[in-house]
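Action item from last week, closing it out:
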Amino acid sequence: MTGEFERIWLVYNQASGSNDEESLAALEEKFDSLGCVMAGKTCFPNETPPDIATLDRERVQILAIFGGDGTISSITTDRYGWQGAILPLPGGTMNMLSRRMHGDAEAPEIVARLRNGISRKVRPSIIRSRHGDGLTGVLAGPGTVWNEVREAMRDIDLVELVTSTTEAIAWSANGPKVACLNSDCGRDEGYAAITISPEDDGLQANGYYADTIGDFAKQGVALLQHDFRNGPHDDLGRHMTIRLACLKGEPMGLLIDGEPFDGESEEEFALVPSEIDIVATADAR
């Protein structure tokens, strides 16, 4: 283990999609076998993650976050200005940031790469909005209502699941659509959902539509998995800034890194670099 990766603080979220006691134990065992000093461990959100002052006092070099994209995003952006680095580890459903930084590797393999010296600190492009920064993506439009279905599934509330699913299909089909206001940016009538993803050379936007109620249901299931990629859509291009608007002048549904926000009738998003170092090991593949 190189010197800059010896003192670790681990934050984990056992409520995340692929994170359980067995996977957590395997991760801790890997840290220990590599000679890491575990300066602290936090169970999020039951416990508050260490602030910058605590991390500095404990001489922490790496804040490892084992959870989903929402957990990683909220903790990372709250620690802007810290001189250490964030290590995102795949403990959620889609793990988009971890995939971007490490490929499809599991958490113990990613940690092992640190010892092999196959890692680097980067400041990847992210999405900035008036609501805060998104590290993995934005979803806008009536299709965001499927987030309520996901929460009902997480809480195992069968009555609420049936109700929210029925309402989600109807709202996805009939809710106020959103459009991209950039020039030559898709359908004038708008879309049930527009996704924005940060890439190195711009924000990639895609507009998703459906022709039947069944199509909306299929796209809703895809949303639950944070994956709209297989649904019918238009490529809306790559931009440094993107302006979206609800065509009826109503507040738009908005998810940033999978977390809901109250959007206004118009929203703007910009490509900016991360304000904190993030550990990447993708070259290890």
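Closing note: The chain has a mean pLDDT of 84.
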